[in-house]
Amino acid sequence: MIVEYLAALPTWIQHLVWSLIALLSITLVARVATRLICLRLKAWALTTQWHWDDAVVDVLQKGMPWWSFLFGLYMALSFWQFSEPLARTLNQALYTAGWLSVTFMAADLASRLVGFYGRQFSSTWPITSLTQNLAQLAIISFGLLMVLHGLGVPIAPLLTAMGVGGLAVALALQDTLANLFAGFYLTLARQVRVGDYIRLDSGEEGHVQDISWRSTEILLPPNNLVYVPNKKLSEAIVTNFDRPTRDIAMPLELGVDYRSDLPRVERVTVEVGREVMKTVKGGVADFCPLVRFHGFGDSSIQCTVILRSQTVGDQALIKHEFIKQLHARYQAEGITPPFPTRTVHLLQPSAETHGR
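RESULT FIELD:
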């Protein structure tokens, strides 16, 4: 009935109707199939301990509706009779759209896999936005070359022209490229890693948040971000508090009264230090604090107490608790803190001077 009704319509209307039916039906069926397939793949991915399968399922779920739409559009266009140049142009457009979609989906997948395995093998595989962008750039470059090859564009002359043009660009963008290659060096050398707490010779210190193509992002203790150009960071004198290990020694300067029993002061201070190491968050529980007397001050005998924290960020709380507990223990033990004193010697005038 419907077919007979359509047969009575003009030819271009028939083509339009059948094209819309083909496009909508293929798109609808593909969406239903995509949902069913992705649900099964997600259920299977949850049973595994891998990360790559979750990323693949997510990328397929995003790409399959677009690919089904392109296939439906291709089938819809087959109902029309186009001239050879127009038909070639439409096929090239569909080819380009398909390859570009596959390319960008693959680039997204590559970036995610770099992130997954970078976190899993962080000791050997650096993970920064620079490495993820490089993975995406490599996939996109390959995809674009495939698109050009499919369109009949010669690739060899294009690569030659890009090489000559790249030299001119390199001369014009010396500072930008210097930061880019410095970022490569910082990422691969692993002297500064994402998450490390560093201090620059210029005074800035904080946690490294990311290394991008131009600058390194550092989170300062006041919760501000500072962006250091990669070239300057590679040339700076950097103190890395997380290498070779994250735990760090904490020297604290103290002073006790000259009348104090020094062996007793040492024993009490070590006992308080051990308690702080075991009970305060961030302390190294198995570390035995050290006390070293090292000088005679103006009003006290000076000593250094060495504690140890798991990270540089734990030092403030450990110092806070140690000073509180040590002060209370000194008071209980009768150990008095030194007070600034000054002895003044008055010279008595001689009899001859007094007579004058």
